[in-house]
Structure formats: C-alpha cells, structure tokens
Amino acid sequence: VEDLWTYPEQTDITKPPNSSTLPEQDEVLRPHLLVAVSPKELLSWKRAYNEDSYYHDKGHSPESPNTPLTPSRFQRSDNGLLYFIDADWRYRLCVPKNKINIILNQIHNSPHEGAHSGKK
C-alpha cells in the first residue's frame, strides 16, 4: 500500500524549497486541504455562480473558431465548481458573493481551521 501521508524520502521539510526544486517536489511540500461537497451543496454553488454578477460568465469556453487561443484563467471542474488559475498554475476556488460570509464563518468558527485559539 502506498503511503500518501508522509514526505518522500530525502525530503528535508525544515528547509524551504529553492530554485532547483522541481515543481512536483514543491507541490508535495505545499500543504493541502481536502474537502468533500454534497450534491445539494454543489447545486447551491452552481446557482450562486449563475446569480453572481462577476462569476456568472466565467469558465465557459464554447468551441468556436472565434475563441482566442489563449485560454481563460477561469476553469470549471467536472462538478461545476469554478477555479482561477494563478501565475504559478495553482487552482484557487472562486467563492461567489453570497457564499463569502458562509465560508468565512465556517473557517473562523471551526475548531479545526482558522487562526483563532478560541474565545478569550
């Protein structure tokens, strides 16, 4: 069984990656957050994207001879979530306006996430 939770051998996690670090190694060292989204919540996000004045038309690339060769920085996943691809080719989840407060509340008030150590 392959162990996906430990660092590869010969990886020194005490030193930051340098310019000679391969992108694949950098990706291994970068922290990741894994989440699951229910079908009902996915549908809610799709509706929120459609209602959002900024995101409603992002990530749709119809096949057409007039489509520019440079692809959009916005991409939709197979499940309908919208991602922005940053300059380092990392995918960033786009949060529609009516979901921002919900996400901030979940992150800041969760005992597992956020930067707060609790009520004082």
TrEMBL record:
Lineage: superkingdom: Eukaryota
Protein name: Integrase zinc-binding domain-containing protein
Disordered, as annotated region: 1-25, 54-73
Record field: transmembrane: none
Biased composition annotated in UniProt, kind: Polar residues: 8-23, 63-73
